[in-house]
Here is the input.
Amino acid sequence: MTKHGLQEPTFLILTALAAGPQHGYGIMTDVAQISGGRVRLRAGTLYAALDRLSGEGSVDVDREEIVGGRLRRYYRITPHGAGVLAAEAERLRANAAVATRRLRTLAEGTA
Amino acid sequence: MNGTEALERRYRRLLAWYPAEHRRIHGEEMIGVLLAAASGGQRRPRVADTLDLIRGGLRIRLTPRRYDGLDAGWRDTLAVASIAIPTMIAIPYAVIFGWTIYNRLSVAGPPPAAVLAVLTGFLLLIALAPVLALLGLRRTAMLPYVLPVLFLGYFGGGPLVSGEDGAFFLAFLIAAVTFVVSPGAPRAVKIMSASAWAAVCGIGLALCVPEVLVRLAPLQRPIPFDGSFIWFGANRETLVMITTMALIAVGGAIGLLRTLPSPVGRRLLALLAVPAYPGFLTLATGGSGTFGPFGVVEAVYVPTVVLACLAAALILQSRRSDLPRRPPDSYTGPGR
Here is the structure.
């Protein structure tokens, strides 16, 4: 698992693929949807991340199709990638829980 | 030239920022994504897309990869080795383990619980290492290869891994190194067809043959080791062992050469030769003392398999232009 937190685009890419195999453009639109339109991946960022995640064994090619004469490659998350995503989700959840608890304490103190 | 063609041409020009290998693998796909994300009538890349592509290309060029120093052929070879060698090791160890347990339970009663637990754990890890590698759990898959080396380095001996010729030690070390420096099993899966898997398993089964033969016909006395028994010893069991295994090994070597892309198959065979060196060294220096059945097996069969593989490789390399190679369609590396 990762020692440092995942970068947000990486986290969102893995989250998108956790729903099932998707091609590059599908990942871009899904990431935009997951983040409520806040994160808009571009091709350069996406494929740099996919290249790195593939090298780490976190994603893999699921299948390839030719659509409209163009190559469409579907990616899927690997068990290793799912583990990385789960660890990061747990890390974020724990941090959020601490932040929420302290904010509640702060609010009670100032009330 | 219409708008889409002009836009595509400009995107292709921007992809020059990426390394050639990245373009070969992802170029067409990226063009498709970029065009899909473009708005209707768009003729030029947006500034944000242009900067993003330049940044992405530079990031890939500047980010060190574990296997950057290797050419594509060796990267693919090490990727295949990272799954093929653990598979070749797992098969004979599983057979030896099954046979040992069967014999101990049927003849001498159950072994001590602690010994059984250690052996079971170790051999389960050995047997599962290929599966763990395929699941991307490289560190766990490395354990059965690293622990015996550390254990024997500290205690100087072990129940299943004899240090007499060190062949399996070298195979263990190679397996561990390939886990670290190769792109790993996901890449190997793209390279290996079903036939290549069959060839790998065939060589693994070949490694079982001497063990099975020795246990079917146990040697009644230790064999004096003078460096000549393999070739002139007229020991029927040994000759049957060598012949049977060599035939299967040649079949496996031919299978690897026919089913793997050209540089990968030959380089993998060269890599498989490395574990034989301690055996050759022992034979060349004459060794000392006597070998029990395990010693005979280890001293004989690994060099024999390797000799058979290399002979097959040398013969077939001269005829390689005639050889059909059928890696999976998803493979896009050298030799395709």
In short: Residues 72-108 of chain B form the longest helix (37 residues). Strands of chain B lie at 223-224, 290-291. Residues 72-322 of chain B form one domain. Chain B has two domains: 3-62, 72-322.
